[in-house]
């Protein structure tokens, strides 16, 4: 038979003592669960009231005054100031800069400048900032540094064109970079000359590189980020106003029957080109002009582009080709060559 041999009892430390050691080491190793010291609440109470008041002190927003010599608009390249709207979708008193934040009055489409523009003085200031012209080697160095797609100093220009807040983004990039890369897509690429003009005019920079839809905007040799212009930001996008109807029931120079015949002819003809959404439309104007040498009515396929972009494209074609848009249907734009006096 087996005999049970009694086990020797070992003197173990008290369980309470061990648990205290574990809890203390646990608190020390894991700060989020450490006990709150008793003096912490007293230290918070003993803080000077001046520090608390400085944190909770309300900021007084005075109207911002900007000396920029042009009218503030949401978009500079996609809005024609000569075309007056016939109505507004919101009351002009709602300024996108916020109530009482700008010393200019919002008219519904723009915040006009309050001072007379001295173009000679402005040109002199910009020449001082630009300094001496860059040499070919300096231009090539900047182009090689900023023209690539992986450049961190890039701004995307969409269907809004050269917007007001984009000017502030350009100056923010110019704090640490001599040039900024601008990638243009969508409707503004139909007229890249207009985009380049407004970028240089509103920012004060100079375009040193242009390839299709890629631009490099140089800040100048003597640019000082500390003396950058004051650019109040738009807090929201204003509602676009209501403009006159683009397509008339009867085209100018045609009768009703002739207009109907032109529309049917354009719908039944093959499209001269197909446009994609947010594409690059740099060569569209030239292709349309070449097609008008042999055809009188053209159809442009704008499937998946969107109705708002179709209208913008038609306006650009009307002004740049020039031509007469006579129909929108099923995301197709029908344009007529128009009658030209010999």
TrEMBL record:
Residues 132-230, 252-342 form the CRM domain. Residues 21-67 are annotated as: Disordered. Residues 36-61 have a biased composition (Low complexity). One of its GO terms (biological process) is Group II intron splicing. The keyword Protease does not apply. Keywords: mRNA processing, mRNA splicing, Repeat, Ribonucleoprotein, RNA-binding, Transit peptide. Transmembrane segments: none annotated. The keyword Transcription regulation does not apply. GO terms for molecular function: RNA binding. Pfam families: CRS1_YhbY. GO terms for cellular component: ribonucleoprotein complex. InterPro entries: CAF1P_plant (IPR044599), RNA-binding_CRM (IPR001890), YhbY-like_sf (IPR035920). This is CRM domain-containing protein. It comes from Tagetes erecta (African marigold).
């Amino acid at each position: 038979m087996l005999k049970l041999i009694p086990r020797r009892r070992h003197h173990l430390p008290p369980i309470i003592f061990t648990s205290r050691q574990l809890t203390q080491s646990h608190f020390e190793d894991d700060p989020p669960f450490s006990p709150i010291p008793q003096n912490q609440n007293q230290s918070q109470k003993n803080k000077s009231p001046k520090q608390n008041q400085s944190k909770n002190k309300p900021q007084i927003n005075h109207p911002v005054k900007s000396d920029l010599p042009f009218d503030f608009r949401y978009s500079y390249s996609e809005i024609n100031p000569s075309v007056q709207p016939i109505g507004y979708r919101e009351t002009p008193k709602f300024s996108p800069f916020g109530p009482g934040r700008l010393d200019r009055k919002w008219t519904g489409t723009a915040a006009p400048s309050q001072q007379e523009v001295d173009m000679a003085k402005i040109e002199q200031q910009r020449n001082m900032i630009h300094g001496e012209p860059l040499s070919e080697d300096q231009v090539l160095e900047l182009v090689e540094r900023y023209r690539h797609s992986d450049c961190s100093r890039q701004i995307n220009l969409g269907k809004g064109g050269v917007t007001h807040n984009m000017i502030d983004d350009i100056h923010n990039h110019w704090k640490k970079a001599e040039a900024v890369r601008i990638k243009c897509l969508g409707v503004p690429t139909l007229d890249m000359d207009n985009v380049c003009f407004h970028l240089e005019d509103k920012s004060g920079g100079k375009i040193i590189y242009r390839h299709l839809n890629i631009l490099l905007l140089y800040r100048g040799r003597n640019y000082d980020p500390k003396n950058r212009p004051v650019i109040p930001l738009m807090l929201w996008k204003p509602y676009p106003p209501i403009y006159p109807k683009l397509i008339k029931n009867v085209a100018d120079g045609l009768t009703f029957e002739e207009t109907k015949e032109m529309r049917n002819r354009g719908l039944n003809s093959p499209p001269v080109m197909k446009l994609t959404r947010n594409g690059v439309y740099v060569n569209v104007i030239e292709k349309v002009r070449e097609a008008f040498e042999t055809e009188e009515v053209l159809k442009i396929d704008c499937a998946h582009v969107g109705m708002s972009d179709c209208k913008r494209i038609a306006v650009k074609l009307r002004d740049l080709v020039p031509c007469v848009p006579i129909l929108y249907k099923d995301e197709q734009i029908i344009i007529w060559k128009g009658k030209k006096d010999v």
